[in-house]
Amino acid sequence: MKLSSLFEQGKTVFSFEIFPPKKTSSIDTIYSTLEGLKDLKPAFISVTYGAGGTMTEAGHSKTCEIASIIKNKYDITPVAHLTCVNSTKAQVEAELNSLKENGIENILALRGDINPDIPRCYDFKYASELVSFIKERGDFHISGACYPEVHNDADNMVDDILNLKKKIDAGVTHLMSQLFFDNNAFYSFVEKARIAGVNVPIEAGIMPVTNKSQIERMVTMCGASLPQKFVKVMQKFENNPEALRDAGIAYAIDQIVDLISSGVDGIHLYTMNNPYVARKISEAVGNLL
Ligand code: FAD
Known about the structure:
- This protein is of the alpha/beta class.
- It has a single domain, classed as TIM Barrel (Alpha-Beta Barrel).
- Helix content is 44%, strand content 15%.
- The chain contains eleven helices and eight strands.
- The chain has an eight-stranded parallel barrel, surrounded by five helices.
- Helix 3 links the parallel strand 2 and strand 3.
- Helix 2 packs parallel to helix 11 and helix 5 packs parallel to helix 6.
- The longest helix is centred in the last third of the chain and has 21 residues.
- The protein is globular.
- It starts with a helix and ends with a helix.
- The mean pLDDT is 94.
- The structure holds flavin-adenine dinucleotide.
- The site of flavin-adenine dinucleotide (FAD) has 25 residues, from strand 3, strand 4, helix 5, helix 6 and strand 6.
């Protein structure tokens, strides 16, 4: 099923993100995550893509293989992430062919982070170029990423939103946002994006913070601002792992309730492959969707 049909129904879409097992782990370890998520009935599950993609013995990327498992074994709509910053056009073309062969219809088209330790490839400079390339090669539904608190490389919000509009003009018909902890930042971003003509559904990316190292990692990587309420909660429980986990879940639920009440198009939950956390949140907000 293409994602566009989900948003035509006028309800808040509730979706999950998972990531493939590490290079050293078997792909089979993903089954325990998926077994824990399957009866939570997400509208779709998206699967992240590592720089350049990690190949399986079958010659597909792990992302493609897991998306195929989500579709065929669990009968849930998958979305395959695809980055281009470390890939040649031939590599991207091969990945698109794999996705087609496996009946994967939805792609989150991304540039990927520029990592000085991984050789950069210049076949694609921006995600919008990848979007145009995908459009010429198949009938995929194409999603894109957006940044409520401005992408790290952008000089300012105005430039970032004008660049986002280029991605829409290239063929993106749905956006998933970077994680944020301050809903007002998201509302303000959506308002500006709409004024700039970004008229596609925008899902809010919510990451439940459930341990201390996650906070530090996420904040350095994405530059998300931390509201006082969030900092207070995290400081109070930082040395009590169970309390911190429960407080992180409660904070995410509070964010989601506010977003749904404000008419958000969708919630994209970064599950971190943790079915316990995804279940607690899904159960708390299920009747609101
Ligand atoms: P782009 O849309 O290309 O934007 C990158 C920067 O370039 C921005 O600053 C933008 O303003 C600027 N820009 C864009 N177009 C132009 C232009 N024409 N002229 C000048 N400047 C321009 N990374 C992974 O490696 N794997 C994943 O699976 C993954 N999943 C993600 C999922 C979500 C929901 C999000 C929000 C991010 C994800 N990322 C993932 C991270 C993402 O790859 C990085 O944030 C990356 O740095 C930017 O990707 P992008 O597709 O947003 O890039």
